[in-house]
User: Which sequence fits this backbone?
């Protein structure tokens, strides 16, 4: 038998969606082909396995769908969008018209202006546009000489003015100085004498005060010095006396000790002498 | 798989969808109640994150209420709803790629902090050890799903857990049915490799992968 099912036939047979003649052919093929039977069995096993996945229970939520109104042409969204764009353009055009907005683009320059653009005053074309460099140089030279002359004239004028003002100033200053010298010379001799005598008295008074003050201070200082010196001498004397007293005391103590020792030595000598003499008497 | 009353109601929700399309808020609410758990579980398995799954679910139903009027064929409501959910999931991925912060739930396992799982679980197993093993296995599988590429993960979850047909998944993802089957094939193959890498074999699960 030359029949061999393809993948579509397999699926149609597996899900029982094969027409009568095709199905017969497939069954004949399966009967004569154990491998195909095994394959079919495997597909059925797979279906059995897939059957283990069950449905999940679910409760339909309430869904409220608004009354579906018939959509008229003017409710169509694309029409709304077009109309809104057109309205926006119209508004922009009206505003542009009202404000007289002018937009122009020329020579890499975008101009946005309100009202009629003011045209710049036309620049008069220079009739002597074709001047040679020598002519230009000459013109520069002439203008420079004119300029120099004008400068020189103004300089001389300024210098003259300066000289005149300096002369005036000198004259007025010398007059003032003469006046001052004259005033100074007219000061009276008596005024100077008074001034000198007052200075002398003041100086005398100052020297007197100074001497008085210094003599008082020296006196106080010397008195203090004498008192301090007397105190120092007194202190020195008492210290010396104390030293002498202590020395005398120590000498006295030493002499006492010496006396006692002497007495003891004498008594011991006497005793020893007494003891040594008595046995001799018994012997003889 | 035994069909519950909810599954039956979901399959026969054409009239509900018609009423909801006309702006009946009560019908919209009922549709949401019917499908919320599915969309939540799809998102949860996609992200393995409760908050993200809740956000995607809520956004999905808000989008559903707003654009239900544009649904052409009521029979395709299911794939239409999953398409919205998939788009919101992709949007969240784009957001989280920009903001690489860890979800607080990842750092602090709130479920572990709460009462033990068996207490809140509706199904009580006779053998706690077997229940624990099942739960562990389910956790590992969830992690393995996360390791798949987004494209394969979407397909595997929609096929295996949401029970969409390949045709419906192709509608949701706006791709061909063969591409869906191919992604499913490589997705299963990828899962097998991930599990083998984590030492899953005949000894640990009792059968050969």
Assistant:
């Amino acid at each position: 038998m030359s029949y061999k099912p393809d993948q579509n036939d397999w699926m149609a047979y597996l899900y029982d969606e094969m027409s009568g003649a095709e199905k017969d052919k497939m069954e004949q093929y399966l009967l004569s082909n154990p491998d195909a039977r095994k394959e079919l069995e495997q597909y059925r096993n797979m279906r059995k396995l897939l059957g283990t996945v069950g449905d999940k229970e679910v409760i339909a939520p309430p869904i409220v769908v608004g009354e579906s109104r018939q959509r008229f042409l003017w409710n169509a969204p694309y029409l709304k969008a077009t109309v809104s764009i057109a309205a926006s353009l119209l508004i922009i055009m009206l505003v542009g018209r009202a404000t007289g907005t002018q937009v122009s683009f020329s020579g890499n320059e975008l101009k946005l202006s309100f009202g009629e653009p003011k045209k710049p005053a036309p620049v008069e074309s220079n009739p002597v546009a074709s001047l040679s460099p020598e002519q230009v140089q000459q013109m520069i030279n002439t203008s420079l000489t004119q300029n120099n002359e004008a400068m020189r004239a103004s300089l001389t004028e300024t210098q003259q003015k300066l000289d005149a003002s300096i002369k005036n100033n000198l004259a007025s200053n010398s007059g003032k100085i003469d006046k001052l010298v004259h005033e100074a010379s007219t000061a009276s001799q008596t005024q100077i004498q008074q001034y000198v005598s007052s200075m002398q008295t003041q100086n005398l008074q100052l020297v007197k005060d100074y001497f008085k003050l210094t003599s008082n201070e020296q006196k106080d200082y010397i008195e203090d010095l004498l008192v301090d010196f007397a105190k120092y001498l007194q202190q020195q004397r008492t210290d010396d006396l104390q030293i002498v007293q202590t020395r005398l005391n120590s000498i006295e103590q030493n002499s006492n000790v010496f006396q006692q020792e002497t007495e003891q030595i004498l008594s011991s000598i006497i005793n020893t002498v007494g003891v040594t003499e008595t046995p001799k008497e018994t012997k003889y | 798989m035994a069909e519950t009353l909810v599954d039956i109601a979901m399959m026969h929700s054409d009239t509900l969808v018609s009423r909801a399309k006309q702006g009946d808020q009560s019908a919209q609410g009922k549709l949401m109640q019917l499908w919320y758990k599915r969309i939540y579980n799809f998102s949860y398995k996609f992200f393995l994150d409760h908050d993200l799954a809740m956000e995607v679910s809520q956004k999905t139903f808000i989008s559903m209420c707003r654009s239900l009027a544009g649904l052409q064929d009521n029979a395709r409501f299911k794939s239409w709803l999953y398409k919205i959910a998939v788009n919101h999931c992709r949007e969240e991925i784009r957001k989280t790629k920009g903001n690489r912060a860890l979800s607080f739930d990842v750092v602090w396992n709130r479920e572990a902090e709460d009462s033990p799982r068996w207490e809140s679980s509706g199904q009580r197993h006779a053998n706690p050890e077997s229940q624990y093993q099942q739960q562990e296995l389910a956790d590992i599988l969830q992690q393995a799903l996360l390791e798949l590429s987004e494209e394969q993960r979407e397909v595997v979850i929609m096929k295996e857990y949401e029970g969409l047909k390949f045709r419906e998944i192709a509608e949701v993802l706006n791709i061909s049915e063969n591409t869906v089957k191919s992604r499913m094939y490589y997705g299963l193959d990828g899962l097998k490799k991930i599990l083998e890498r984590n030492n899953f074999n005949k000894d640990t699960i009792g059968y050969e992968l």
Observations:
- The longest strand of chain A covers residues 101-105.
- Confidence is low (pLDDT under 50) at residues 280-284 of chain A.
- Chain A touches chain B through 29 residues (CB under 8 Å).
- Chain A has six helices and two strands.
